[in-house]
Amino acid sequence: MRRPHTATGRDDRELIRMATLAASSHNTQPWKFLPSTDAITIRADLTRRCPAVDPDDAHLYKSLGCAAENMVQAAAVQGIAATVSVDRTDREVRVDFDGTTDPGPTPLADAILTRQCTRDSYDGRPVTPDDLAALEAAGTLGSAHCVCITGADRLGEVAAFVTRGNLTQLNDARFRRELVSWIRFNPATALATRDGLAGRTTGQPAVPTWFGTALQRILLKADTQAKVDAERLASSAGVTVFVTPGDDVSDWVDAGRACQRYALQAEALDIRTAFINQPIEVTDLRPEFESWLGLTDERVHLAVRFGHGAKVPYSLRRPIDDVVRADAI
Ligand SMILES: Cc1cc2nc3c(=O)[nH]c(=O)nc-3n(C[C@H](O)[C@H](O)[C@H](O)COP(=O)(O)O)c2cc1C
User: Fold this and answer.
1) Residues with CB under 6 A from ligand 1
2) Is the pTM of this model over 0.85?
3) Where does residue 294 fall: left (phi above 0), alpha (psi -120 to 50 degrees), or beta otherwise?
């Protein structure tokens, strides 16, 4: 899945391969790709919903936005300029191939292959003002823009929101059941499904699934997770949140695209990123988090911490034939 770009003209399988390397909530990969003459349409695979953490499917459509952004960046390598539109009624994302550009590698397209969510602690080093400016530019796209939070005091306040989010989520049986259903406790299970949250990407030792499931009450404790997240936030150079004016499918796709482009730019600058979305996912916390951010007419959709640090093993992806309409290519 992570071999280098190969195509020189339009190659839909390559574009879809690159799209699937995008981030997705719980690595559900909730997408189906439908190629046509001038476009590839990305549809939600609603069998991969996560109703406990994502009751309105907002994260699902942000994931489609992440995939669309990877496709736009990959198209440039093939000499194609692409534009993204959202059909609010059918809830589809369309990537139109409506222009040409000079073919060849770009830093953001190359970053598709190596970007990852790096959930380990970082080394505490700040990010330079030039790099921060490049990240901010990358995270501004369509109706979305980003707000960067730095400084130990402010990051400590984010950690307090995250702690409250962990308490709510990890004391909710539905949330826990859903999360555990997406954890792949050992490499054999991860390789069988090629989706979900593999233990090796989060630094967990491999255990049989029955054992991991039985032990989740001990392994997934709100106070332990809160401590780990607070340490990881303190090790980070900052947190960036992605914001749009509204809260519908078009906002979600734009926020996903902006966040993915931000992550690609970070990867190109050798900066690590990882999501820290608890203050957004917990319904009661989100308005409080928004007013803490000083937002009045805008909504916050995603939060990532960033900084310098070592990479972790990559997560897997399902084969392209599983995510493309069977008779399409
Ligand atoms: C909309 C969305 C929400 C996410 N929320 C979280 C989160 O709350 N915590 C987390 O650790 N990762 C989160 N992720 C990251 C995914 O778990 C990650 O993208 C997936 O496991 C694939 O791994 P990769 O991005 O390293 O390839 C989210 C990703 C997306 C697109």
Assistant:
1) 23-27, 59, 62-63, 66, 116-117, 119, 197, 274-275, 277, 315
2) yes
3) left
